[in-house]
Amino acid sequence: MKLAVQEGLLPGATLVEKLDVAEDIGFEGIEFGGHGLLEREAELDNALRGRTIQFSTICGQPGFNFTHGDPALRRESIDTCKRLLALAGRFGAVGHINPVAFHPRKLPDLSPYMDGLTLERALFVELAAELAEVAEAAGTLLLLEPLNRYETYFMNTQDDGVALAERIHRPGVAIMSDFFHMAIEETDTPAALRRAGKWVRHVHLADNTRLEPGTGCTDFAAGFASLQQIGFGDYMALECGLSDRQDAKGALTRCHEFLKSCMP
User: Fold this and answer.
1) Domain housing 189
2) Is 145 assigned a catalytic role?
3) How many angstroms from the chain centroid is the CA of residue 122?
4) Given 31, 186, 212, 239, which residue is catalytic?
5) What CATH number should be reported for the domain holding residue 245?
6) What are the tens digits of pLDDT across the range 90-100?
7) Count of the separate structural domains present in the chain
8) pLDDT in tens, 196-233
9) Considering 31, 120, 145, 186, which one is annotated as catalytic?
């Protein structure tokens, strides 16, 4: 298990300065947001060259209209995702994280033929084959992210994510497990991770407070023990707020030390 941090949490005026901070703390990976990332390829090349820290993952993209009723909006989301998957592969990243859909629902209820959610999931399974093909060619993954019920209706639990990944059934598709969302949706986070097993290829870390781990009551040690049991060895990236933005490096350093103490 390797610790990563999202770019936006790091202090510094430039990417080079941010990477210096991350390496000094001991982070092994950096996760980039998908917004505007395609236009930063040269910057990424220059800043990451010769570094010990690695490009771990891409989180999200500008639009999530994969299951929208408008074919043009669907195509825009698909094509953007394909370009981000190609970029992830170029930098050796684990994958591109995608929650697929946010509220409100995108398709109407067509009962008794099919309700709206069943229709959306069936549509995405068809579309995901195109995304998986790009991911596989690039040597990376489309990482499906279950979110809590307040953010999406589409995929809330680890079981939901696994069920969708199994329906897609492609080597270029896996799931991303987020401790914050699991704290809301799962009755037993360690057990949910064990059930998800091989499908878990990336993890997001935030305490139940949505601040950095160590500021709330989430049992990270128990979760990490389950990750070890399923053979997880990929990145776990901080996706959270910071309890002290005035001393971001100090907060991140304390968090890094706390997470290391929780590892088996």
Assistant:
1) 2-262
2) yes
3) 22
4) 239
5) 3.20.20.150
6) 999 999 999 99
7) 1
8) 999 999 999 999 999 999 999 999 999 999 999 999 99
9) 145
